[in-house]
Design a protein that fits this description.
Elements (H helix, E strand, L loop, with lengths): L1 H9 L2 H39 L4 E2 L7 H4 L3 E8 L5 E7 L12 E11 L5 E10 L18 E8 L21 E3 L4 H8 L3 E8 L19 H36 L5
Parallel strand pairs: 1-2, 3-7, 5-8
Antiparallel strand pairs: 2-4, 2-6, 3-4, 4-5, 6-8
Length: about 260
Amino acid sequence: MNKLFSALVAKRVVATVSALLVIAIGCGAGIWQLSRGNAKIVLAANLLARQQMPILSANQGPWTLEEASERRMTARGQYIAQAAIWLDNRPRPIPLAGSNVAQSGFYLMMPLKLDGRDEVLWINRGWAPRNNENRETLPPVTTPNHVVNIEGIVFAHPGRVYELGGGKISAEINKPRIEQNFDLVAEGKLRGWKQAPFILREVEAGADDGLLREWAPLTNGVDRHYAYAFQWFALAFAGFIFWLVSGLRQYKRQGFVNGDQK
């Protein structure tokens, strides 16, 4: 047993340390991927539970973010189309069937002046594809010029993407503009509006306005996390097997050389 330990560990310090490092990294990354997948499942369950609570009305507010977050809400008002913000580099929420390539486009953020209230509620109206030939050409979208009733789910923000340069907001606030990210607080200060402290992501799928509102479920990507976890655990196992097999071979070679094998 002492000879085996010596052959596997004592005489192979560098190989042993390297194997332990690979095993630690593989197991750590695998556990992290599993935790991310489980966190998405828990988050989706909490979201579903909150959506089953009574529907709120934005016109009967004011509501805080804590009160309204992830709950269903209705809103009645009129869009301020000239203040629209197009959030760039947003992939299609649910890819086209049979396509493995993410289609890039925009989220359309548009303020809604609430009927009967001196308050604005920002609406994520949906997703539209980008013009691949000219990025500055905005998708053709229909905006009602009358009071509308919409329903959606409350979120703190529409999601963020990596942005270089600190995200400076354009000074041209009287016409639609393209931005990488949406800063609710900054928009309120820039325009001097009284705003709801959250955004409403519209859920109506039947409106023929040029926007897609088939939102991806929060559990989207869980299978990918589990697949990554399997790969990391497999790497750790492979590292252990390589260390063990190479050590046993060295042990057997030493046995032959020393005349221990007959």
